[in-house]
Amino acid sequence: MSYLVLARKYRSRDFESLVGQEHVVQALSNALTQQRLHHAYLFTGTRGVGKTSVSRILAKALNCTGADGQGGITAHPCGVCDACRDIDAGRFVDYVELDAASNRGVDEISQLLDQSVYKPVMGRFKVYMIDEVHMLSTTAFNAMLKTLEEPPEYLKFVLATTDPQKVPPTVLSRCLQFNLRPMAPQTVLEHLGTVLGAEQITAEPGALRLLARAARGSMRDALSLTDQAIAFGAGALTEAGVRQMLGAVDRTHAVRLINALAQGQGAEVVAAVNDLRGLGLSATGTLEEMAVLLQQMAVVQAVPDALDANDPDSAAAVRLSGRLPADDTQLLYSIVLHGRAELALAPDEYSGLVMVLLRMLAFRPSGAAAPAPSRPAEAPPAPVAAPAAAMASAPAPVPAPAPVAAAAPPVPRESVRPAAVAPAPSTRVAPRSSEPPAWLDEQPFDGEGAGGSAISLEDAEAAAEASVVAPVARRPLPADKPAPVHVPTDLGTRWNDVVMQLCAAGAISALAREMAMQAQCLAIETQDGVPVWRLRVEREMLRSPALRDKVQAALAELLKQPVRLEVEGGGTATDTPAQRAAAERLRRQAEAEQIIHNDPLVQTLMQQFKTARIVPGSVKFH
After folding, report:
1. d(Cα 352, Cα 559) in Å, to the nearest integer?
2. 213, part of any domain
3. Are residues 156 and 14 in the same domain?
4. DSSP code string of 159-226
5. Residues 105, 212: one domain?
6. Distance of alpha carbon 286 from alpha carbon 283, whole angstroms
7. 241 and 336 in a common domain
8. Do 49 and 137 fall into the same domain?
């Protein structure tokens, strides 16, 4: 006797055994019980979710005569009468299944409709089931419209399709449509356990989980993969065997990669990819497993108790969820999804995998175990300076918005990337003589000094000499850690002049220019007759040998002699060209604002209109 595959052997025979489509079962059962029957049904959904099975069950429910031959239309077909047995066997003459993919022309449909004028031979209803109905031609659809709208009372149409968008609206409007949903992995897993129990085949829970995930919502695919796994494992389903058959990547590899990314261990990431290459595991499967793990981590971060405690894979997701902030988990998940689409463009899938992982490493959160490099695409934030006198004042004034070079509204503190922003110098504010309009959020100008957030020219000049500059960081500094102080030095002046010459000549650009602007010259020494410039650069990414070599070559060309750069990290740079440029911008901005405030016409207007003010940030220098 030939073997019957599991997908056919365990096809649902009645509504009670139909898995994962409770919404369809409930609607059809109630309609059959109340005798409220439509003349045309349309079942949509992906492959293997039960469209054909529902059609056959519906045909049996309409034609079942019961075990005693006296039954009628029922939501619970007996399965033993002639009609039920013949429909299951595919030999019931009043139930016609037509494959529209191979019978898509108007001639085939016309032939089918010509037979509809004859009453059922054996059953109560004649049922036409047209599978993949979207494959019919336009003329074939037009030919069946009239019969589909007003068929004889003994004729029922059942249409099935995986692509309802291709079905004409004129057909959709004549049908009662049911969307069969893809099944959840847990539903597939439970059904596989039931089937294997009936087959008396032992299976490890991990093997069933892999099969349920690989089925992607299709019960037929799950049963077909189970057949293949039984053959592969010689009658037994083990997790290792099923993983080998599917080519799936073990969860431990994804855990290892995400743990290395969270800690900023680039060497461990590359080593993990080399191990995957040695094992012959798929790069696409690796990214897919990482996406699943990151999704579970995001769920844990949002709802800590949402994961199934009985799933052994949940423990790793719970453990890793505490090592990454929620926004960084979302970022890595997005990079994984986009990286899967880019693998086909890479020279080979493993080099593509390495680049996707290095992209995650480049955007690693600053709160990771290792110091995080700055994001390559992020422009250096403009340092905000504050007068030294304001830092030494005893009473803490109310912080006012710092002036900005561009004409833009003040940015809230929470959205600014620089860490600590020093308060602006205090200003005198005259008491209001009347209630200001609702749109005002600043105190009015008092007619004697700079109102609002204006900065005096004297304070700005002091700030240019000794300014408080916010370091480059993603999160604000703790309150007990003061921002570094810009301390001008002779070496800093010399390095600033050299960098300005290099930039003006176009000798350096992009990241090399950024490295030079963010570097502080600590010493200039001579070793073996070669000048050695020792620099301090805070950003790890800017300390790369490639950038150092570019700046070194440009400096040697400028000085017309060989030089060597030594770049070190650690500590805080206090005198860089970027900090000097920021202080100069602040001084020029304050000078421009002071010119506006000292203008006689402006003074007159502010004295005449007590609620008048100069909007912070609206004054720009040129």
Report:
1. 42
2. yes
3. yes
4. EEES-GGGS-HHHHTTSEEEEPPPPPHHHHHHHHHHHHHHHT--B-HHHHHHHHHHHTT-HHHHHHHH
5. no
6. 5
7. no
8. yes
d(CA 105, CA 94): 22
- For the chain, the domain total comes to 4
Q: What residues contact residue 433 under an 8 Å CB cut-off, 6+ apart? A: 610
Checking if the pLDDT of 171 tops 70, the result is: yes
620 — pLDDT class (breaks 50, 70, 90): confident
User: What tokens were used for 253?
Assistant: 């590899």
468 pLDDT band (50/70/90 cuts)?
very low
- 32 and 147: one domain? yes
Domain with 283 in it: 251-362
Give the separation between CA 142 and CA 409, rounded to whole angstroms: 61
pLDDT tens digits for range 372-387: 333 444 444 444 333 3
Amino acid found at 532: V
User: Does the pLDDT of residue 438 top 80, yes or no?
Assistant: no
Domain boundary among 574, 592, 611: 574
Which phi and psi angles does 351 have, rounded to 5°?
-65, -35
Task: Please check whether residue 281 is in contact with residue 249, taking contact to mean a CB–CB distance below 8 angstroms.
Answer: yes
C-alpha R_g of the chain: 37
User: What is the C-alpha to C-alpha distance for residues 264 and 285, in angstroms, rounded to an integer?
Assistant: 23
Q: Is 554 within the bounds of a domain?
A: yes
The DSSP output letter for 620 is: -
Q: Last residue of a domain, which of 163, 179, 195?
A: 179
The one-character DSSP state at 481 is S
